[in-house]
Amino acid sequence: MGFDLSGYVTVNERLKHAIQKWPDLRVQESEPQLIHTDGQTFIQVTTTVWRSPDDTLPCIASCWEPYPGTTPYTRGSEQQNASTSSLGRCLGLMGIAIEAGMASKDEVVLARERTRETPTYEREQKPRGKQPASKAQMGYLKRLLQQQNVVMTAEELAELEADKFACSKKIEEMQDN
């Protein structure tokens, strides 16, 4: 079971919409920077978009992409992915093609690839003990169970509700079915 991406718009489509709306649109991208935080490294790209040459309030957005990339699809193209995401986010902030949400189709696909490569329950960096699953997380799990006709006992559900990482693991298992 995968994500429904039918409502999402690619960054190049967002850019086409923006150019139609603002024919004098200009885009500038910053020089990529390496950011080090919490033992991880990211490439940061910042994009500025002017609607016209005299735009006094251009839109500015940044994006971080893990470096090195965490999947075979992102490794080696981290800067390009950050660049595309930064532009898509900037155009989204300008109101271009955000009906399905702020993230572009490209960002959703890349996020899903990263999730498959490193499951949620393995991503936690600092052990914090068990934390309960959120209501949204449990609601999503119950929808998956119903859609796939999977029955769990009250005890099994209670265990997942008490541990958000175990719940994430179960959700990911069900999404891969």
How many discrete domains?
2
**Mean pLDDT across all amino acids:** 79
Shape: elongated
Beta-strand segment tally? 4
Q: Tell me the structural class.
A: alpha+beta
Per DSSP, the total helix count is 7
Please tell me how large the radius of gyration is: 19 Å
Distance between the termini: 6 Å
Proportion of residues in β-strands: 15-25%
Major sheet: 4 strands, antiparallel
Unreliable spans are 119-127
Helix content: 40-55%
- What string, H for helix and E for strand, traces the elements in order? HEEEEHHHHHH
Q: What does it look like?
A:
This protein has 177 residues and is an alpha+beta fold. The protein has 2 domains: 11-118, no CATH class; 129-175, no CATH class. 44% of the residues lie in helices and 16% in strands. It is built from 7 helices and 4 strands. Strands 1, 2, 3 and 4 form a 4-stranded antiparallel beta sheet that branches. It is elongated and about 65 Å long.
